[in-house]
Amino acid sequence: MSRLLIFGLGYTASRIASLVQARSWHVDATGSSGNVSFDDSHAVTAALARATHILSSVPPSGDSDPVLEAYGHALHGQSLFYLSSTGVYGDAGGAWVDEASPTGTGRRTARAHCDARWLEMEARVFRLPGIYGPGRSALDRVAEGKGHRIDLPGQVFSRVHVDDIVSGVVAAFESEAPPGAYNLADDLPTSQNAVIEEAARLLDVPPPPLQTMEEADLSPMARGFYAENRRVANGKAKRLLGWTPRYPTYREGLAAIRAQA
Question: Record keywords: NAD included (predicted)?
Answer without folding.
Answer: yes
